[in-house]
Amino acid sequence: MDLFKFFTKDEVNSKDIARERLKMVLAQDRTNISPQILNMLKANIIELVSGYMEIDEGGVRVQLTRNTSVRRGATSELVANIPIRKVKNIGKTM
User: Fold this and answer.
1) How far apart are CA 27 and CA 33, in angstroms?
2) pTM (2 d.p.)
3) CB within 8 A of 35, min separation 6: which ones?
4) Distance CA 73, CA 89 (A)
5) Nearest residue to 31 (alpha-carbon basis) of 77, 80, 79
6) Cα–Cα distance between 33 and 25 in angstroms, integer?
7) Cα 3 to the chain's mean position, in Å?
């Protein structure tokens, strides 16, 4: 029986991944931001954050998502997941 759960879990993960990709494509389409612009934003974010922290550049994920709330209506959000290795000791004075 555990064998069936193992295969079901993979299907759910694939479905969830496809759903997230579709949401990202729809959000990019609605905000009229091309993949090239999103890649440029990602590069700029990496450059900026790297000045303050050591990060895993290969693990950086930047997404444009669509959020709908009752109070604000539909908004687009830029979400960046940045794996931080260590914070640099820049200008700490105490």
Assistant:
1) 9
2) 0.57
3) 28
4) 41
5) 77
6) 10
7) 32
Banded model confidence at residue 1, pLDDT cuts 50, 70, 90: very low
For the stretch 48-91, pLDDT in tens is 999 999 999 999 988 877 777 777 777 778 889 999 999 988 77
How long a stretch of residues is the chain? Answer: 94
Q: Which residue has the tokens 């993960």?
A: 13
Residues with Cβ within 8 Å of residue 62, at least 6 apart in sequence? 38, 41, 42, 45, 78, 79, 80, 81
Q: Dump the DSSP string for the chain.
A: -HHHHHHHHHHHHHHHHHHHHHHHHHHHHHHT--HHHHHHHHHHHHHHHHTTEEE-GGG-EEEEEEEEETTTEEEEEEEEE--EEEE---S---
